[in-house]
Amino acid sequence: MYCKQICVCVCVEVSYADCCEIVSACKSSNVILAVCHVLRYLPEVRKITELIRSGALGDVVCIQHTEPVGRVLRQYL
Less Cβ crowding at N or C end of the chain, within 10 Å? Predict the structure, then answer.
């Protein structure tokens, strides 16, 4: 037995009904559904990238980004 997974981009252009159908199909088939978010173009991410590349923050060895997931995500405000 093996596990199937589906990863979709947040910009996928489907209706709300289509999304509900995708979620339902994944649940009933015990398939993991993940949504990818491209964050590199957000102003905050561009700024931190600029600071890291300039050396302003010293030697950065690790970055961890956690975004609360709810009905509205930060990048859509």
Answer: N
Same domain flag for 13 and 24: yes
Band the pLDDT of 47: cuts 50, 70, 90: very high
Which domain, by its residues, includes 44?
A: 39-77
Amino acid at 20: C
The single residue listed with the structure tokens 């981009």 is 9
Which of the two residues, 38 and 44, has the higher pLDDT score? 44
Strands (E), the chain: 5-9, 32-36
